């Protein structure tokens, strides 16, 4: 584990194999962090969020329904707590005022106090959708939710490729705006730095920016080759981090000129990500590497190339010796002779 340089990582990614990966985009390097030292699929990372005190602590939600506390400065796991209730894995984590908030696939949201007891889990707000033309209830398949800054409104994306904006102040508790994108289920969503649009991703790796004030499409981003699992925009820079089943972390520039800024292959299926909000994250100096510490991947690569070079020297004859032998053979030949 590269614990000394953990604080300089720009993106933290949770994998299906239970590994928390810290990615430094400036060095093009990814470090693995696991609580037990060995990856386990039962501990697949499904949700990430920052803890209290800035970006020094990360809350890691695992498939075994435990929330692990990770020190992002030292690169070590501190403690964990078990959060039962509901069905499925974690879909969201948050920490506020010393309490932990969890949400699972079955839609159960719980608030946990510091004494490991659960606070009230009664629904505080129930949002509805207008019945269809046959007066039948319309199914709701919300996949992600974001609160709009400076207001009580929230925006959701659904598995029916819809983007909806709700206003809790409205007495009807129904969407005040609804837009659709594509034909495939939307799986992830994030707010842009301006707060006037959202970027959504679907099961076919398509990314699109939608203005939720007018419900119109602003543009699309290309490059993904699988279902999108995690999206997050930088709070002040026009950058978007994305990950998914194609095992690649991508950083796109979402303002003109749009395009791909970074691309890192991470070997495992990626479930979620957490992007650092530092303003100077691309300008930080690189830490000097310890003289006796060499990454294991670099050591394996050097050994491989050394073995290939040794094999090549054994198989290929020396060029100078070969040329000298040919010249001696030519001198021995007589004029007009046809045999060697």
Automatic annotation (TrEMBL):
List the GO biological process terms. ribosomal large subunit biogenesis
Which terms in the GO cellular component ontology are assigned?
nucleolus
Note down the stretches annotated as region Disordered.
Answer: 279-340
InterPro entries per the UniProt record, alphabetical: WD40/YVTN_repeat-like_dom_sf (IPR015943), WD40_repeat_dom_sf (IPR036322), WD40_rpt (IPR001680), WDR74/Nsa1 (IPR037379)
Q: What are the Basic residues biased-composition ranges?
A: 327-340
Task: Specify the domain of life of the species encoding this protein.
Answer: Eukaryota
Q: What is this protein called?
A: WD repeat domain 74
């Amino acid at each position: 584990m590269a614990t000394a340089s953990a604080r300089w990582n720009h993106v933290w990614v949770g994998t299906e194999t239970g590994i928390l990966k810290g990615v430094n985009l400036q060095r093009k390097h990814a470090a693995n962090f696991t609580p037990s030292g060995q990856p386990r699929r039962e501990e697949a990372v499904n949700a990430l969020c920052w803890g209290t005190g800035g970006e020094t602590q990360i809350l890691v939600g695992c498939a075994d329904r435990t929330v692990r506390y990770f020190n992002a400065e030292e690169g070590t796991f501190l403690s964990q707590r078990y959060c039962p209730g509901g069905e499925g894995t974690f879909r969201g984590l948050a920490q506020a005022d010393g309490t932990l908030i969890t949400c699972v696939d079955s839609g159960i949201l719980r608030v946990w106090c510091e004494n490991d007891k659960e606070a009230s889990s009664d629904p505080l707000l129930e949002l509805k959708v207008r019945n269809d033309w046959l007066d039948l209830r319309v199914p709701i398949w919300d996949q992600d939710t974001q609160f709009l800054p400076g207001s009580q409104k929230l925006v959701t994306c659904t598995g029916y490729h819809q983007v909806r904006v709700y206003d809790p102040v409205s007495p009807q508790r129904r969407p005040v705006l609804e837009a659709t994108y594509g034909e495939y289920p939307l799986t992830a969503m994030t707010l842009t730095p301006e707060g006037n649009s959202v970027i959504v991703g679907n099961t076919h790796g398509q990314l699109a920016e939608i203005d939720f004030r007018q419900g119109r499409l602003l543009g699309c981003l290309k490059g993904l080759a699988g279902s999108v699992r995690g999206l997050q925009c930088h709070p002040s820079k026009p950058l978007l981090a994305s990950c998914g089943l194609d095992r690649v972390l991508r950083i796109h520039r979402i303002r003109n000129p749009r395009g791909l800024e970074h691309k890192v292959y991470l070997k495992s299926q990626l479930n979620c990500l957490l992007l650092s909000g530092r303003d100077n994250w691309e300008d930080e100096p690189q830490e000097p590497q310890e003289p006796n510490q060499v990454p294991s991947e670099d050591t394996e690569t050097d050994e491989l190339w050394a073995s290939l070079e040794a094999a090549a020297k054994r198989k290929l004859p020396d060029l100078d010796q070969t040329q000298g032998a040919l010249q001696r053979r030519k001198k021995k030949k007589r004029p007009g002779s046809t045999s060697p």
